[in-house]
Amino acid sequence: MALLSVKDACISYGGALLLDHIHLNIERNERVCLLGRNGSGKTTLMKLINGEITPDSGAVSRGQGLATARLDQEIPAGITGPVFDIVTSGLAAQGRLLADYHHAGALLADRHGDDPRLMARLARLGQQLDAENGWGIHRQADLIITRMQLPAEAEFATLSTGLKRRTMLARALVAGPDILMLDEPTNHLDIDAITWLEDFLAAYGGTSVIVTHDRRLVQKLASRIIEIDRGRLLDWPCDYATFLARKEESLAMEEKQNQLFDKKLSIEEAWLRQGVKARRTRDQGRVNSLLKMRARRRQRQEQPGGVKMLLSAGQRSGDLVIAAEQVGYHFPGQQLIRDFSTAIMRRDRVGIIGPNGCGKTTLLRLLLGERVPSQGRIRLGTNLEVVYFDQTRDQLDAERTVFDNVADGNETVTINGAAQHVIGYLRKFLFTPEQARAKVKSLSGGERCRLLLARLFTRTVNVLVLDEPTNDLDIETLELLEELLFEFKGTLLLVSHDRAFLNNVVTSTLVFSGQGKIEEFVGGYDDWLRQREIPIPQAGKKLSPKPLPRPRPATVKMSFKEERELEALPPRLERLEAEKDRLCRSLADPGFYRDTGGEVAAARARLKELEEELGAAYQRWVYLEERKTTAPAAGK
C-alpha cells in the first residue's frame, strides 16, 4: 500500500495551472528525485506532500500515522541556540523536555555534581521522560547527532553553512519521518559535505524525495525520477542516465506527433474554406471533428524555450593573463594561502576546489588584483576585461526592478555590437515582461541567478570569473551555460562544488589541500580524483590529493647563470608586455594610419615579433621555475 497518494490534484496561483490534474503514489523505501525547470512547481509539490498546502481540486490520501519532514533549500533566519536544542526541536514538546534534561545534566557535570537544586530538577525531568517514554527518543537524538558528526553544545549561529544544513537535516530526521523531503540539499555545501550527504542518503532506510540540480547526486541516488513538465507529472522508474535517453526519445516522439496533427489540421482547415460543400448535412460530422481538433490545438502546451545566453566577446588579452609568484595571504592567526605560484594563460579554464571557508573567494580576489598578498606578488597581463559573478549576488539591487538592474536606466543593451531592447533581451533569460517590471526582491534564487548572468553578459569580457554560479539553477540551464563556456574564447576562473559542471568545463584544477597549500592538477573533478593518493575524506577533514606526475626537469642544482636568468625574466616580461600594450593602443588609434604605410607595417611586424618573443620567454620562465622548485637543497 502506498504511503501517500495524490489523485487528480490541481494547484494554481491566479494564472495557468502550476500542477495540472496530477496523479502520484509514493511507496516505502523509494528514493525519488524530483526534476523540472525553475518555477515548474517542484517546491509546491513537496509542500503538498508535506501537508503545508491543499490542492485547489483533487485529493491527497495519507497513510495512517504518516510522518513527513521537509528540509527547505534556504536556512531559516533567526534560528539560535545550541545544536542539541535545534535538533530536538523537531520533536515539539518532547524535544523541549529533552533539551531541558540535556542542559541540566551538562550544567550539573560542570559543577561536579555539587548542586542539590540542580540534582532535584534533573530528577523531576527524568521522571517526566519516564512518563512520556522519552528515553528512547533521547537515544534516537543522541544517535543522529553522533552519526551526523554534529557538535551538540556548539551555538548554531557560529557553525559553517555545511554544518548548519546538516543540523537542519538532523532536526528533520529525529522524528523518524516516513517520507523525508530535501529541497536543493547541496546548495552552499562544499564537495566533502556533498559526498558525505550522498553516502548518508544512500544508506538511509526510509523514503526520500529530493529536489536537486546536482546531476552526480541524482545518478547515485535516484531509484525513480519524477519530472514536472508543463504542469504534468512524468514518472520515470529508472536511473538518471536511462532517464536522459528515454526523455530525448519522448520529446522526439511528441514533436513528430504534433507535426502529424498540425498537418492533418491544416488539411481540414483548407477543406472547410472551400465553402458551401463543407456545410452540407452529410459533412457535419467532419466539421464537428475539425472543431474538436481546433480545441485540442488551443489546449496544447508547447515545450517551453530554453535560456538563450550569449557572451559579448572582448578584445584579445595578452598571452599571460595572471602570474602568481610565491604568494601568501593570512589573517591574524590564520594562514589562508602559502607559497602559491601559477601562470594562467589566455584560454585556460581553471577550476578551484576546496572546503567552505578555506579561502577560494580570497584566492580569486588576489588573482584579480583586488587584494594585496601578504607575501609574494601577483602580475596581471594586458588588455584584461574581467566580468565577475559573485556568489552573494551583491551586484543586484533588490529594491530596483529586473529591467533597471540589467539596463541601468537605458532602454537597450548592446550584445556583440548589436542593440537589443531590454524586454526582448530578458525574454532570452526566461523573464516575462511582467517579471521585468517587478523588483528583484520578489524573485526566487534561480531567477536571481539568471538575472545576474543576464546583467553580466551585457559587458564585453575576455576573463570570466564565476564564483559558485550553479546554486539554484535548474539542470537545463546548467547544461546551456556549459555549452556557452565551452565556446568562450577567453579565460575562465571557476569556483564550484558541482562535480559534473567542473568535469564538463575546466581544463585544470587548483585544489586547497590543507594548511594553506594549493596544488594544481590537469583536468576536472574526476581527473583530480584519479590523481589523489587517498579516498574522499569525511566532511570537515582536510583534502590531501596527490598531484598528477608530469615531466619535470632533472633534479640537478640550477647553475649560477640559470639563477640570474630567472631573476631577470620577470622585469623582461614586464617590458615586453608594456611595449606590446603600447603597440596595440597605437594600432587601435585611427590617427596612426594617417602616417606613412611603412610605419604601420613596421608596427605590425614588431607586434608579431613581440608575441613570439613573449611566448618563448614565458615558456622559459615556467621551465626555470620548475627547475627551481624541484632542485635539491644545497649539500644534499
Question: End-to-end span in angstroms?
Answer: 74 Å
CATH superfamily of the largest domain: P-loop containing nucleotide triphosphate hydrolases
Number of strands: 22
Strand content: 15-25%
CATH topology of the largest domain: Rossmann fold
Helix fraction, binned, reads 40-55%
Which spans have pLDDT < 50 for at least 5 consecutive residues? 534-555
Q: How confident is the prediction overall: mean pLDDT?
A: 81
Structural class: alpha/beta
From the alpha carbons, calculate the radius of gyration and give it in angstroms.
Answer: 31 Å
Name the overall outline: flat
CATH architecture of the largest domain: 3-Layer(aba) Sandwich
Across the major sheet, the strand order is 5-6-7-3-8-9
Question: What is the tally of helical segments?
Answer: 20
CATH class category label of the largest domain: Alpha Beta
Main beta sheet: strand number and arrangement? 6 strands, mixed
Oligomer: single chain
- Count of domains: 4
Characteristic terms for this protein:
flat, six-stranded mixed beta sheet, 22 strands, 636 residues, single chain, Rossmann fold, alpha/beta
